[in-house]
TrEMBL record:
E.C. number(s) listed in UniProt: 3.1.11.2
Lineage, highest ranks first: Bacteria, Pseudomonadati, Pseudomonadota, Alphaproteobacteria, Parvularculales
Domain of life of the native organism: Bacteria
Site-annotated residues for Transition state stabilizer: N150
Catalytic residues, chain numbering: Y105, D148, H257
Example GO biological process: DNA repair
Name of the featured protein: Exodeoxyribonuclease III
Residues the entry annotates as binding Mg(2+): N7, E34, D148, N150, D256, H257
Cofactor (UniProt): Mg(2+); Mn(2+)
Residues of the site described as Interaction with DNA substrate: H257
This protein's UniProt keywords: Hydrolase, Magnesium, Manganese, Metal-binding
GO MF, one annotated term: double-stranded DNA 3'-5' DNA exonuclease activity
Length: 266
């Protein structure tokens, strides 16, 4: 099964690119973040026409929003609200075979990495804490976590570790929170497990760069993790099983995130 996560930054605006990606890569499951539309505005007909008839959508007007679409049946749809904010940032489904797939859009956290001065950063840390509490229970369940988690945890998950230590998404308080979540939830960060620790991995490049590809100042914000029962299956096919589709970042009117895919035997 090929599972893809992609922060699309408005699914209606970029539906042509999404359909092109589905035709070229033929994933079984596509998890989208920042869909930025209500449930009844989601382009369900376009997905169904492309062969993705199974959908779990948790939308919100103009902001946030997540959706999981698939060629295979999705059961037990469940959105979870975090931090009592009313934001559409999560949807869970059960895949054929029983694995539970959680699709997340973690808050970006604003610009100031100080929870006392910046409520958005405080919200992000609280969100991570709630995720940790949720997934520290029943660690032996087959789970897959995907999404734009808005944290680049490792030194080589950013273009400059030293220069970004005080920049939101790579501050020690955030990276420590993510590492605690991975440890307490019993997860494997698949991308890092399948590559050498010193290999640069990015899935996001800022719109602000005049030539994002040439400057290559990226960050790895988009993740695929698996719980212990799925670890062997996630790693069995080797490094080629996980791909960051960097070329998609260069398509016309792109999202600032590239899709990330994993081939896993479920």
């Amino acid at each position: 099964m090929r599972i893809v996560t992609w922060n699309i930054n408005s699914v209606r605006l970029r539906i042509d690119s999404v359909i092109r990606f589905l035709e070229e890569e033929q994933p079984d499951v596509l998890c989208l973040q920042e869909t930025k539309c209500l449930n009844d505005q989601f382009p369900a007909k376009a997905f169904a026409k492309a062969g993705y008839e199974h959908m779990a959508v948790n939308g919100q007007k103009a902001y946030h929003g997540v959706a999981t679409v698939a060629r295979v049946p999705l059961t037990d749809h469940q959105p979870i609200e975090f931090c009592g904010m009313g934001d559409a940032r999560h949807i869970a489904v059960t895949l054929p075979g029983g694995a539970r797939l959680h699709n997340f859009y973690v808050p970006a956290g604003g610009d100031e990495p100080d929870p006392e001065k910046n409520p958005k950063f405080a919200h992000k840390l609280a969100f991570m804490e709630e995720m940790t509490k949720l997934f520290s229970k029943k660690k032996k369940e087959p789970r897959i976590i995907v999404g734009d988690l808005n944290i680049a945890p490792g030194e080589h998950d950013v273009w400059s570790h030293k220069q970004l230590l005080k920049v939101v998404s790579h501050t020690p308080v955030e990276t420590d929170a993510m590492k605690a979540l991975i440890k307490k939830g019993g997860f494997t960060d698949v991308a890092r497990e399948l590559t050498t620790e010193d290999e640069k991995l990015y899935s996001w490049w800022s719109y602000r760069a005049k030539d994002w590809a040439a400057s290559d100042r990226g960050r790895r914000l988009d993740h695929i993790w698996v719980s212990e029962p799925l670890r062997e299956a996630a790693l069995a096919k080797g490094p080629q099983a996980l791909k960051i589709h960097r070329d998609v970042r260069g398509w016309e009117k792109p999202s600032d995130h590239a899709p990330v895919s994993l081939d896993i035997d479920l």
